Fold:
Amino acid sequence: MKTILYFFTSLLLFSCAANATQPNFLIIVGDDCTYNDLPLYGGENAKTPNLDALAARGLTFNQAYLATAMCQPCRAELYSGQYPMSNGCAWNHSASRPETRSLPHYLKPLGYRVGIAGKVHVKPAENYPFDPVEGFDKSCVRNPTEPHDLSGMQNYIAGDEPFCLVIGLTEPHIPWVMGDASQYPRKKIKLPPNLADTPETRGHFADYLAEITYMDSQVGDILEALEESGKAEETLVIFTSEQGSQFPGCKWTNWNTGLHTAFIAAWPGKVAEGKRTDALIQYADVAPTLVDLAGGEVEPQVDGSSFAPVLHGETEKHRDFAYGIHNNLPEGPRYPIRSITDGKFRYIRNLLPEELYIEKHLMGGGRLNNPYWATWMGDDPMKGPSAYEVIKRYMSRPSEQLYHTREDSYEMENLAENTGYAEIKTRLAGALDAWMEAEGDPGAEVDTIKALEASRKGQHLYGKFR
Structure:
């Protein structure tokens, strides 16, 4: 009897000691925010004082990526630690494989409470069994966004056990109706080179910038609540901007402005303050990193790996490549794309280059869309080639594209046919082939109605785990 009592007492003491050393995790996710529209990454328009302040006391990742520039697949990657073909969510509005595991499965056995507030957008629920936390709007298309209430967050993080809390903000996802657009006079805005310069584009870009600033104010409120809780010193805070915005060349693409994400990590005394790193990371690496920091072991089905050594300043390198995949259904006609980057160059393979690229939300009508695209189509070509060139770039794509992204962040100059870059293209193409083979990705066959409908029913026709 004494032996049993001693065993359980020792187990309890071990558990308490583990909890005392385990960090909390607060992950704040923006929604459709192009990384280099933020001042932290060279943006020349938006005002983001709270994100700037967070970066000043944390580590900014210059090279952070996600595999798919669409809300649901990128969040499935973030929470599962698996690439889209592995977890099964390789299209927007699809479902992960029945056996997919995620942050709650990984962290709860380590003594964590794992909750989510705001936008969720992953399914099925049993694969992502987060504790629901109230206080932030769950709908990214509401007009206007519901005001946030911090009491749900405050109650959740007040417990004795360590917590992992995801707060999915809904800005700056369309409709762009939040914030004060008068802060951004249309004529003074500096538009990115991948957008046609029309008055309507400038007006909507001003609305988008106002939503970025509104999102920034939410980040400030969240961080203030964390500080007031007394748990800031023991909490790793991560902010990430998700994929690019709903402007042509960003969301729903494999260009840099689609797949590159903002990523800030702050943890007092554990992560260097005001530093930047060129270490290459991907959303699939986040879950294994949290498990590692929590004292657990990464599960074998996870594709990513822990970048904890980068956070601790022990190394400036993590992975060699970040990978990208786009299947256009159900957002428009099939248009499968695959890509790879080494942080300096990006190689893109358009698997059906003879087709026109069409995205129904961005290019079509409806209450959730903005009419600037029509002004591009009607722009007078006698005034200059800008509209025609960006439309052509967006809709008509060659089979291969290669960009020197480090020098051309908007990837406007395709170097794929430049013989001076042939060796780089061959190297990246070979690494992309190897990744697709490892993922069980047959390419264009994935972007079909048959494969999408099977996924929605929990039946996955392709991938290494089928």
